[in-house]
Write a structure and sequence with these properties.
The complex is a heterodimer of chains A (440) and B (257). By secondary structure, chain A is α/β, with parallel strands linked by helices. Chain A is built from eleven helices and 19 strands. Chain A is globular and about 70 Å long. Chain B has helices spanning 47-55, 79-84, 102-116, 124-137, 155-169, 185-198, 237-246, 248-255, and strands at 7-18, 21-32, 36-40, 60-69, 72-73, 87-90, 97-101, 148-149, 173-177, 204-209, 222-227, 230-235. The chains are: A alpha/beta (440), B alpha/beta (257).
Chain lengths: 440, 257
């Protein structure tokens, strides 16, 4: 059935789909240009250093012909998603913003724009807004998203505005059959703005959907943002995302990433600390169980003096799961006084599981503090025996030690429903769970 | 008088190897309900191997012999079942488990045992009252309740925590592996009080120790000297005092004969 190569199938799909996408001749040209560049470069292959841990054969199995968009009712969404708990719900279904399911109650300083509508109404400003991917080999899936640009959402928080409610942005894959969806996301926080964004990627149904997201995040001077991200699509789904984040002077960005679902997940984040004293804290926890593969790449560029990043990633692989973490820190010549730390701690729970962790440092200036470390280990047999000797059954003891491995990361999740979900997924049903965080 | 109780632990001709090295050579030991036995011996004589193999620590190979607990084949039972059936090991070096809080382990452990015995699980209120009482009697700071298991505990706090767990789980057979080592005199007294509080006609206690001083506070019914992987001499409390006076070289000399 898949006799044609993935790139050939992408080109064929593009020919069929692109004429129906909004934006007029300007955007047809832009999309065709992106496709041509992608075809010339080719999709990443195993021999590419940055892509060697992903199963390209499996990726090539996904249907790149755009497939149908499903319909999602409010009831189905309610049943599948985490409770929004007072947050403003914004919903993207199969790559398109769904205004009907989203809460668009006006709020001063907050602008939410459906990209499909913007492309149709004002192709020129859409083109300014959606930057073309950098001429960088790692942005090939962003090129793919550019070639299929048809929807997504723009979220803007005006200067000086602090959002009263968190945003809960859902990316739902609903297709009943194998399909691929491409979405764009733009988030801009003006100077001094503040927001909390909870992002959730989920599937309704068990179809093998390929989801591709290209996102840009711009944090203005002295703004701050807390970003919780939960990726939990079904085990048949593939998900690739490319984030480009710019952080201005004095701004603070905190991200907590949980990759607990999706059969094949590749997350690329490029963060640029562009202004003096920009501050960024990234924490991540990923679980590769069953046959799942999770491949996380971060690239942090310190481009201004006294910028600071702290990265703390934990990976757990079991069954025949495969995980990879590749974290690159670049300190540019213009960034004296930069402070960067990165840790990657990994836990292997089965002989057939695999984790590859690769920290990279590139420093072009003196007077910086950079620390990084990566460890991969198994459960400690002495701890395991201690728990068994106290009467705990082996499954509970193993789950408890697995939980303990990332307890501090889980405890830091400020969203109770998400914290409970992550706990369950990592540690299963532990007895006495109400005591897991101790006595009140 | 002490022959009247039921046999709790019966070890016969037990030979055990760890990796490529044989540690126990035909060790025999019988402990009845109501008794406290002390096993003394020099470093490397096999004391920790004995408690480890009885509690089910992995890594031991039993070459020959048997160990029965309440008439059942102890060595065939997985470690968690031994614990649920009432065997408790107080570790010489209690492991730290950051990320699992102490009170969580206490309750999960207690309820696992209660469930096994067919008793109802304790609710949060009953449990809290019970555990707070035990913390007080072990003179442990309540802040240790919500810390990771043994995480950042001093040596003495770790040993008290072992005795606290023991007092909560109320074992039928308690094995204490050098619980007295590294304790100052006040902590030794607290630990000894904990052990004495557990003494009862239904229970048996085996104290493994290098020194005699714990036996000033917990008076044993029998004292055994372990050397070269077997028990070379048994006696009453006087044996421990003699050992203290004459040193282990005295035993090594007589054992060879």
């Amino acid at each position: 059935m898949n006799a044609a190569s993935p790139i050939e199938r992408i080109a064929a799909s593009h020919a069929a789909v692109a004429p129906g996408l909004p934006g007029g001749p300007r955007w047809s040209q832009r999309r065709s240009g992106a496709l041509a560049t992608l075809v010339a470069r080719g999709l990443p292959e195993r021999r590419d250093e940055n892509w060697k841990y992903l199963d390209h054969l499996r990726l090539g199995d996904f249907r790149f012909d755009a497939g149908e968009r499903g319909r999602l009712t409010a009831g189905e969404l309610h049943a599948a998603a985490l409770p929004s708990e007072g947050a403003r719900r914004l919903v993207i279904v199969d790559g398109r913003f769904d205004a009907g399911l989203s809460d668009l109650t006006p709020e001063p300083g907050l602008a939410i724009e459906d990209l499909t509508a913007l492309l149709a109404r004002d192709p020129a400003s859409a083109e300014t807004l959606l930057r073309a991917p950098a001429a960088d080999a790692d942005d090939r899936f962003a090129l793919l998203a550019d070639a299929f640009t048809g929807g997504g959402v723009v979220i803007r928080v005006a200067a000086g505005q602090r959002l009263a409610r968190p945003l809960h942005l859902l990316h739902v894959a609903t297709s009943n059959a194998a399909a691929s969806h491409h979405a764009r996301l733009v988030i801009e926080a003006g100077a001094g703005a503040g927001l909390q964004l909870v992002e959730e990627f989920l599937s309704v149904g068990d179809a093998a959907v390929f989801g591709n997201l290209s996102a840009e995040l711009c944090l203005g001077a002295a703004s701050d943002m807390e970003h919780l991200r939960l990726l939990r699509r079904n085990p048949a789904a593939a998900q690739v995302e490319t984030w480009v984040t710019r952080i201005a002077a004095g701004a603070s960005y905190r991200q907590h990433l949980f990759v607990l679902g999706g059969g094949l997940v590749r997350s690329n984040s490029r963060l640029m600390l562009e202004g003096e004293a920009a501050d960024c804290r990234l924490s991540g926890l990923y679980l590769a169980d069953g046959e799942r593969q999770v491949d996380i790449h971060t690239q942090v560029a310190h481009q201004a003096p006294r910028t600071r990043t702290v990265q703390d990633y934990r990976g757990i692989a079991t069954d025949r799961g495969r995980g990879a973490f590749n974290g690159c820190i670049v300190v540019h010549a213009g960034a004296p006084g930069a402070d960067a730390s990165q840790t990657s701690r990994n836990l292997l729970l089965a002989a057939g599981a695999e984790i590859n962790a690769r920290p990279q440092l590139e420093i072009h200036v003196d007077d910086v503090r950079c620390r990084h470390g990566a460890t991969t280990g198994t459960l400690d047999p002495a701890q395991l025996f201690y728990l068994l000797s106290r009467g705990l059954d082996p499954a509970t003891a193993r789950n408890l030690l697995t939980y303990a491995f990332c307890q501090d990361v889980i405890a830091g999740i400020g969203h109770p429903a998400m914290r409970a979900y992550v706990e369950d997924r990592i540690a299963g049903a532990l007895p006495e769970r109400e005591l897991i965080r101790g006595l009140a | 008088m002490s022959d009247s109780g039921q046999v709790i632990l019966d070890v016969k001709d037990l030979s055990v190897r760890v990796a490529d090295r044989q540690i126990l050579y035909g060790l025999s030991l019988s402990v009845r309900a109501g008794e406290v036995h002390a096993i003394m011996g020099p470093n490397g004589s096999g004391k920790s191997t004995l408690t480890g193999v009885l509690a089910g620590r992995p890594g031991y190979e039993v070459l020959s012999g048997s160990a029965t607990y309440l008439g059942r084949d102890l060595l065939a039972m997985p470690p968690e079942l031994r614990a649920r059936e009432g065997l408790f090991l107080a570790f010489q070096y209690p492991v730290e488990i950051p990320g699992v809080n102490n009170v969580y382990l206490l309750k999960a452990s207690l309820n696992a045992l209660r469930k096994h015995r067919g008793q109802p699980e304790l609710d949060a209120f009953e449990f809290l009252a019970l555990v707070r009482g035990r913390f007080a009697s072990m003179r442990m700071d309540e802040s240790l309740l919500n810390r990771g298991v043994n995480e950042g505990f001093s040596g003495g706090e770790k040993k008290r925590n072992e005795i606290l767990q023991m007092s909560l789980l109320e074992p039928t057979l308690a094995l204490l592996d050098e619980t007295d080592s590294g304790l100052d005199i006040d902590a030794l007294k607290v630990v000894a009080d904990g052990v004495n509080a557990l003494r009862s006609p239904e229970r048996a206690i085996v104290l493994v120790t290098h020194y005699q001083r714990l036996l000033d506070h917990v008076v044993p019914d029998q004292v055994h000297v372990l050397a070269g992987g077997r028990i070379v001499r048994s006696g009453d409390r006087e044996l421990a005092l003699e050992l203290e006076r004459r040193g282990y070289d005295w035993i090594r000399g007589t054992a060879a004969a």
